[in-house]
Each structure stands twice: as C-alpha cells, then as structure tokens.
C-alpha cells in the first residue's frame, strides 16, 4: 500500500524479540521479504534511529512508482 500511495519512507516496528523463545522473528522475516519479492518496492532499508525504535525498527526507502512495474 505504501508504494501505491506514493510514500517515500516507511517505519516498520519489528520489536527486538526479547519475549520470543528463539530471539527475533519479525525483523528477519521482513528482511528476507525485502531481499526477495520486496525488492520491487524497496530501494533500501536501514535500522531506525534510536528515537524511532533503534534495533527494534527499520526505515524502508520506497522506490519511485515510475521505477517499479506493478
């Protein structure tokens, strides 16, 4: 939806996985998606600044709609 709506950046709060028995689950899943089918929509991503969630959040840089095909 963010790509279709023309957003340039998205903050994805994944949490740090402290309450998960096997460590972080959501962040690795998001990163795997970005590197596969998400590559059509995501130009780059990075860990959020501390005040935005730090290791518990990612900043996604959305590709321009002109650059994507869907």
How does this model look, in words?
Helix content is 14%, strand content 24%. The chain has 70 residues and is of the alpha+beta class. The longest helix is centred in the middle third of the chain and has 10 residues. The model has no long low-confidence stretch (mean pLDDT 89).
List the helices and strands and how they pair.
Layout: E1 9-13, H1 26-35, E2 42-47, E3 57-62
Antiparallel strand pairs: 1-3, 2-3
Q: Could you name the key traits of this structure?
A:
single chain, 70 residues, alpha+beta, three-stranded antiparallel beta sheet, 1 helix, 3 strands
Helix and strand string, N-terminal first? Answer: EHEE
Q: Given the structure, what is the number of helices?
A: 1
Q: Considering DSSP H and I runs of 4 or more, what fraction of the residues is helical?
A: 10-25%
Provide mean pLDDT, rounded. Answer: 89
Report the strand count.
Answer: 3
Radius of gyration: 13 Å
Instruction: Please list the strands of the largest sheet in the order they lie side by side.
Output: 1-3-2
Report strand %.
Answer: 15-25%
Roughly how many Å apart are the termini?
12 Å
Main sheet overview: 3 strands, antiparallel
General shape: globular
Uncertain residue ranges: none
| SSE-based structural type | alpha+beta
